[in-house]
UniProtKB/TrEMBL annotation:
Superkingdom of origin organism: Eukaryota
GO cellular component: membrane
InterPro entries cross-referenced by the UniProt entry: Glyco_trans_14
UniProt keyword terms in alphabetical order: Glycoprotein, Glycosyltransferase, Membrane, Transferase, Transmembrane, Transmembrane helix
Residues passing through the membrane, by range: 12-34
Protein name: Uncharacterized protein
Membrane topology: Single-pass type II membrane protein
Source organism per UniProt: Caenorhabditis nigoni
Pfam families the record matches: Branch
Keyword field contains tRNA processing: no
Subcellular location: Membrane
Molecular function terms, GO-annotated: glycosyltransferase activity
Amino acid sequence: MANHDICTKTMWALSVPLAVLLVLFIALTAYATYSFHIFVPLAPDNDIDCAEMFNKSSENYLSYIENRTVLVPTRNDKNCFQIRRRRYLPSDMPKSMAGNHNMFFIRVVKKDYDFVEEVLTMMHSPIHFFCFPIDISADSIFKERMFRLGDCMVNVLVPRELFNTSTAHGTLSAHRRCLKEIDEFDWKHAVITAEHDIPLHSTKFLSRRSRRLRDMVEINGVHFKEETLLSADPNDTSSQLYQVSRNWIQHLCSMATISHSQHKTLYNYLMKTPDFNLPNDEHREVHVLEKGCDTNQYDVDGSCLYAMQDFPAIRNTTRLFIRADPNYDFGFIQCVHEVVFERTYFDPISNKNAMNYLYGSHKNLINDYRN
């Protein structure tokens, strides 16, 4: 009888931890199955047939131009799992994107949280860093969602400090806060872009291009060597560095590529130049920066806002970023997302040559990837 009691107690003692382990295994399997797309790259799943948008005479294109889709905000997520389910934020690089040239992408934001997520998804990679300083005019829900995004992603930084970016020095201070945030990490180049800029190429393409700069700084396509930055006089308003940097800041800091070794020298110089007010929603720039703008839609600084009628031309442009408005034509932004996705995961040639593109080839790679 005593032996029987001992056996019963032993069986109960073993069954409890085994049951716990079984429950944990089932829960882990369910989680992995339910959220498998977090770890496997997913193509953008748009309602628009973006391949049709290359044909300006097609009925689908003409119908879309008459009824453009605009940004519809998603719900305010309460945890990281919801963000990861909605957006593919990869945990590893594609095999064709091997390399350790760490990039740092910085942009000041103040509205359109879902647009911020969309662009982050286009460019995200675990070997790069992303920083989003928030303008002081942002509403409470936008700030809450941005802070949560920064808390959820280890390589996404969202400083708690808010910035008045209506002035040149305020915007530069926001950039410097990001640059100081991870200065101890060995990132190679920082890419500064404006709030409504969207990329046209993969991060691999941007990384290759930045490597060629070495220790130089590029602002609006103009290169500046180390000796130029070291000897720069902030009171010399006739210098090329002053003229180019002022024009860059005036147009909402779109865009510049700054080497890690020179960012302190550059920003020390910029913060000593005269401060001035920047265009904003209340004060729009009357000067048009890009006169050949098919949409006739402009940002507050006079930059052209691109839309679906520009989509056929983007496969032949060498531009790195263009400006778009999600509240005017969000479908265009989604189709550009497909372009960037295909250039990232399918087409190593287009990462070297911007003239090569996949639509119009013998197969639709986006649909192949979804299936």
